[in-house]
Amino acid sequence: MPDLSYLPQIALSGIAVGCIYGLIGIGFCVIYNASGIVNFAQGAFVMMGGMIAYSALTALGLPLPVAAAAAIVVVAAVGVIIERIVVRPLWDRKATMFVMILATLAAQIVVERLALIVAGDQPRTLPPFSDLPPIRLGTVVISYQFLWIVGISLLLIILLDQFFKRTKTGKAMRACAFNREAASLQGINVSRMLSLSFALSAGLGAIAGVLITPTQYTSFNVGVPFAISGFIAAIVGGFGHPLGAFMGGIMLGLAQSIAIVAFGAGLKNVAALSVLLIFLFIRPGGILGEAK
Amino acid sequence: MTLLSLQGVTRRFGGLVAVDAIDLEVAQGGVTAVIGPNGAGKTTLFNMISGFQTPNAGRIMFAGQDITARPPEEIAASGLIRTFQLVQLFQNLSVLENIQVGCHLHTKGGVLSALMRTGSTRQTEREVESRALELLDFVGLEGAAEAEATALAYGQQRLLEIARALAAKPKLLLLDEPAAGLSADESKRLSAAIRAIAGRGTTVLLIEHDMKLVMNTADTIAVLDFGRKIAEGPPATVRENPAVIAAYLGVGDA
Amino acid sequence: MRRGLAALPWAVACAMLAYAFITGGYFVTIMSFAMIYAVFIIGLNVFMGFAGQVSFGHNAFAALSGYTSAVLTATYYWEPLAAFAVGLGLALLVALVVGWPTLRLKGHYLAMATLAIGLIVYEIAIQWQSVTQGYMGISGIAPLGIGGYEIVSERGKLFALMVFVLLAAFAAARLRASRFGRALAAIAGSEDAARALGINVPHYKLAAFLVSAAYAALAGSLFVHVVEFVSPEVFGLHMVVLAFTMLYVGGIGTIGGPILGAVIVSLLPEVFRGLKDYQDLFYGAGLILLLIYAPKGLAGLGNLMSRGGKA
Question: Which of A269, A273, B205, B233 shows the smallest number of beta carbons within 10 Å?
Answer without folding.
Answer: B233
